Structure formats: structure tokens, C-alpha cells
TrEMBL record:
This is Carbohydrate ABC transporter permease. Residues 94-299 form the ABC transmembrane type-1 domain. Gene3D superfamilies: MetI-like. Residues 1-20 are annotated as: Disordered. PANTHER family: ABC TRANSPORTER PERMEASE PROTEIN MG189-RELATED-RELATED (PTHR43744), POLYGALACTURONAN_RHAMNOGALACTURONAN TRANSPORT SYSTEM PERMEASE PROTEIN YTCP (PTHR43744:SF9). It is a multi-pass membrane protein. The chain crosses the membrane at residues 32-56, 90-117, 129-149, 161-182, 202-229, 283-302. CDD domains: TM_PBP2.
Length: 317
């Protein structure tokens, strides 16, 4: 038995009409063009930080005489030497910031993921109330004074590490983001199938929901890590004992304040030469480098999950 193959007829070319140009012929040229545009944009983002590093390694007198330049005539590490003259306090301050960042980020992820997962399930009876409760705090907050009273008078956590962790541990914005992520990423059918097999809510959340939600968790974790790392205001509020070592950001701010005090009061103190030799501008740039470099080095490890967390759910189908 023979089978007949369908005959594919091609449309005859219309006289006087040009054949449309294949898009693949334009792809290499457009790729080069867009790569150049994206490369210039990436360089414009990285260049300011590189310029700050160059200024921090510039001699203070050269900076005053010649101004800012991409390649100064004289380099110097006096700014970093001035900062590290604080001795072991700076390293202890770095350790405090690292402890606060790690502890706060883990606590934030636990609170945000559990709260967001609960309000993302349609079977949760009070999910509308708790969703509104989280959203309401984004519009109207209690303020600084009530928060200070709760932290110091009711919880008695002043001058403790928890006074730096708890104020930033539960973010309404993070809850809304994770709730949307759970709704768009975790189908109800998977959860119903797990319940039929006898799995409880905690087992479903730990073994099914969290593994498929790593992009969203990494995104919230990165936001929380940046918030804890750059926080200095809570140390200003709740740390009032001189023997306590503050976080890194607050320590760098104290160094800058002391340096400005010596510079502005040099005439009263009778130390013109000492004030003139203080690397004021370069120290500020060195502080930016010390405060930013650890996060810049850690960001590539979160980049893959971070991009997925921002783009997931944008196109569904």
C-alpha cells in the first residue's frame, strides 16, 4: 500500500514586489549594536565606584591642588591608615555588622515567607484581613516614638543586638512581593496532591513550596541584607553605652564626625598642621569603599536568583 505525500505548493513571487529580507541576516549587526549599548550602560554604573576607589587612594594635598582626576600624580593610602588607626574596634564593628546582617536576614526570611505563604493560600479563612493588615502598615506606620517606647520600655532590648535586628525584621513590602510570588509560582494543584498523599502544611511548605521559591527568597534576602548592612539609625537610637561597639556604618560615621570636629576647631586647639594633614576628602571616599565593597563582592552569588525573582510571573503562559 502506497501513501501519497502531500504536495507543498509555494506561492509564486508577485511581479514587482521585493522578497522580504530574512531577520536572521540583521541579527549579528543588531547584536553588536545592543551589546555596545548595554556595555556602555554597565560601564556607566561601574565607573562611579571605580572613581571613588581612585580618589580614596589619592594623596590629600594632590587632591586639593589638582582636583579630581582619573589618574592622579601621587597615590597614597593615608585615608585607609587613618581609618584603621582605630585598631581592633573597626574589626569588631565589622563583626557586629556581619552578625546583625546574617541574623536579621535569616529572621526576615522566616517571618516573611511564613506570613506570605499563609495569605497566599485561598483556603486560609483570614487571608484578606492579614493581607490588609500588612498593606495598611505600608501606608500608616506607628512612627519613631512609639517604636522607641516599645523597644525600650516594653521589650527592654536597648543596648542589645536585638534592638538592631527586630525593627527591620518584618517588611510589608517583602510580604506583598512573596505573596504574589507564591500565587504565581506554586499551583494549587500541587498542594492539593500533596495533601491527598497525607502531607501536612509544614511538610508541604518545607519540602515543596520553599525549593521552588528560591528566586523569590533570594530576592527578599538580598533586599534585607542591604537594609541591615546599611543601617546606622537604629544604633543611634538604641546604643547609648560607650563600651558597646556599634555597627560598621555607625562607626564610620563617628570617625567622620571626629575628623570634621578636629578640622573645624583646629584654630582653638592650636593644631593647624595636624588639621591640614588630615585626609578629609579621601577618608570619605575610603569609607564608601569599605562600606560598599563587601556587598559588591557578595552580589554575584545572588545575581542568578535575583534576576529570576524579579522576572518570574511577569509573563505567564
Amino acid at each position: 500500500m502506497t501513501t501519497t505525500q502531500p504536495v507543498q505548493s509555494e506561492m509564486p513571487p508577485v511581479p514587482g514586489r521585493k522578497k522580504p529580507r530574512d531577520f536572521n541576516e540583521l541579527t549579528p549587526a543588531w547584536n553588536v549594536f545592543f551589546n555596545i549599548i548595554i556595555g556602555l550602560f554597565a560601564f556607566s554604573c561601574v565607573f562611579p565606584f571605580l572613581f571613588v576607589i581612585i580618589i580614596s587612594l589619592t594623596d590629600e594635598q594632590t587632591l586639593v591642588l589638582e582636583g579630581f582626576s582619573l589618574w592622579p600624580s601621587k597615590f597614597s593610602t593615608a585615608a585607609y591608615s587613618y581609618i584603621f588607626e582605630t585598631g581592633h574596634e573597626l574589626f569588631v564593628s565589622f563583626g557586629v555588622t556581619l552578625l546583625v546582617t546574617v541574623t536579621g536576614t535569616l529572621l526576615t526570611l522566616i517571618l516573611v515567607t511564613t506570613y506570605a505563604y499563609a495569605v497566599s493560600r485561598k483556603s486560609f479563612e483570614f487571608r484578606g484581613f492579614f493581607s490588609f493588615l500588612a498593606f495598611f502598615t505600608m501606608l500608616f506606620s506607628g512612627g519613631m516614638v512609639p517604636g522607641y517606647i516599645v523597644m525600650t520600655q516594653f521589650l527592654h532590648l536597648q543596648n542589645t543586638i536585638w534592638s538592631l535586628v527586630l525593627p527591620l525584621s518584618l517588611s510589608a513590602f517583602s510580604i506583598i512581593v512573596m505573596r504574589t510570588f507564591f500565587q504565581t509560582t506554586v499551583p494549587d494543584e500541587i498542594i492539593e496532591s500533596a495533601k491527598i498523599d497525607g502531607a501536612g502544611e509544614l511538610l508541604i511548605f518545607a519540602r515543596i513550596v520553599l525549593p521552588v521559591s528560591l528566586p523569590g527568597i533570594a530576592t527578599i534576602g538580598l533586599f534585607s541584607c542591604l537594609a541591615y548592612w546599611n543601617d546606622w539609625f537604629n544604633a543611634l537610637l538604641y546604643y547609648n553605652k560607650p563600651e558597646l561597639t556599634p555597627p560598621l556604618q555607625f562607626m564610620l560615621m563617628k570617625i567622620e564626625k571626629n575628623m570634621d570636629f578636629l578640622t573645624q576647631n583646629a584654630q582653638n586647639l592650636g593644631s593647624f598642621n595636624a588639621a591640614a594633614n588630615l585626609p578629609t576628602e579621601t577618608v570619605r571616599m575610603a569609607m564608601v569603599v569599605l562600606a560598599t565593597l563587601p556587598i559588591v563582592m557578595a552580589y554575584p552569588f545572588f545575581q542568578r536568583y535575583f534576576v529570576q525573582g524579579l522576572t518570574v510571573g511577569s509573563v505567564k503562559g
